[in-house]
Design goal:
Length: 395
């Protein structure tokens, strides 16, 4: 029996409900060539976009993530350790929002994943423009340079710029340019593993037991509470690893809830609840014992190669000390989309964080010292009441 050709994208997305922040319209315009409309973007726009994205990623958290931290404080089942960690993370977020000190000392490897429509004109060298924006962000803010250049097999030297960045640009249809920005910290990267198992694991009892055993090996070095991601299957080992990164960044949240005969990936909401329950019951908690080893879990199942499905998987932890914009940085990411001819696509999404406005406590740095840093940077965010109010885009 011959099967008829049917093209199936592995990732089939639903509607994009990400709120976007309009940065500028300068350097972005529609042009008409041979009767077709094209989106023309000046290189400076990509530089500005990358600069703003990594600045935000280093200093801000999404309202949804802050709500998860607040939920720990409100949950009567939280241990004193859980609540201590959550409160410290909220205090830390409040200070970081002043854009003087980042949310975490590990400000990560800069990663950009982009989908560029075939009717988007930039003149080429997009990677260079994005790298310049990354350079600007790390040079102008108090962000750590983490990239080491290999001089030979045994000798390394810090590049002094946090470059090179990992930049991947994929060709796509249409006149949109979508970019995902991730500052990937070393802790979560070091706790990302690939397990190549047999089909014997693919039953409810065996798979959940396997997940529980591997969860316990993660430990606390990547700074819980985590955002966990589990990917089962994949067309190759490297694709599985990439999928788990995208899942942990919430990029795959819009996948359908079921697969089909052609092999599309899907998101398993029921399995996510079971994985999160396991994480809550293993007793590790937010570093020192308790319930909140993880905030949430994502479970994705892409098409696989071979006889039956051999689960290549990992529960990738994303650290809560870095922001996620989903476009979040999720720890770590931020998505900005330019949509030709539709200014509403740049919807302004500044949301005042009404979850909790904390009085600044400068126990770690001393009030005068931190205030002086703010003044020297010319970015005082203290109002007359002595509170720091912070507004940021994101989901």
């Amino acid at each position: 029996m011959t099967t008829e050709f049917s093209y199936q994208p592995l990732f089939e997305f639903g509607p994009d409900e990400t709120p976007y922040r309009k940065i500028s319209t300068e350097g972005v315009e529609m042009v008409t060539l041979n009767g077709r409309d094209f989106l023309q973007i000046q290189p400076g726009v990509l530089r500005q976009l990358a600069h703003q994205a990594f600045d935000d990623v280093a200093h801000l958290l999404r309202p949804s993530h802050l709500a998860q931290l607040k939920r720990i404080l409100d949950d009567p089942e939280s241990s004193p350790n859980d609540k201590f960690v959550a409160l410290e993370l909220l205090r830390n977020a409040n200070i970081a929002a002043g854009r003087v000190l980042p949310g975490c000392q590990d400000t990560g490897t800069a990663i950009v994943m982009a989908h560029k429509g075939e009717r988007v004109l930039t003149g080429g060298k997009d990677g260079e423009a994005l790298s310049q924006g990354i350079f600007d962000a790390y040079a102008e803010r108090n962000l750590r340079y983490s990239q080491l250049a290999p001089l030979d097999m045994y000798t390394e030297k810090n590049t002094g710029s946090n470059l090179p960045a990992q930049i991947e640009i994929y060709a796509d249809d249409g006149d949109e340019y979508e970019l995902l920005f991730i500052a990937k910290g070393g802790g979560s990267a070091n706790k990302t593993f690939l397990y190549q198992e047999t089909k014997a694991v693919l039953n409810p009892s065996s798979l959940l037991a396997f997940v529980e055993a591997k969860l316990k090996t993660i430990g606390t070095s990547a700074c819980p509470p985590y955002h966990l991601a589990l990917v089962v299957g994949g067309t190759s080992a490297e694709f599985t690893m990439k999928t788990v990164k995208l899942a942990s960044a919430r990029y795959l949240d819009r996948l359908p809830a079921a697969g089909n005969d052609h092999g599309r990936a899907f998101r398993d909401h029921d399995m996510e609840r079971q994985v999160l329950k396991i994480a809550q019951q293993i007793g590790v908690g937010a570093q020192f014992g308790g319930k909140y080893f993880a905030h949430d879990a994502r479970v994705e199942d892409p098409c696989v190669l071979g006889k039956g499905r051999h689960p290549s998987l990992y529960l990738a932890p994303q650290r809560t000390t870095q922001p996620l914009f989903h476009g979040e940085a999720e720890p770590l990411l931020r998505t900005i989309k330019y949509v030709a001819g539709h200014d509403t696509a740049h919807r302004a999404a500044k949301q005042s964080l009404q979850l909790m406005v904390l009085r600044l406590e400068f126990a770690r740095y001393g009030e005068r010292q931190l205030d002086q840093l703010v003044v020297e940077k010319g970015n005082s965010a203290l109002d007359a009441s002595g509170h720091r109010h912070f507004i940021h885009p994101g989901k």
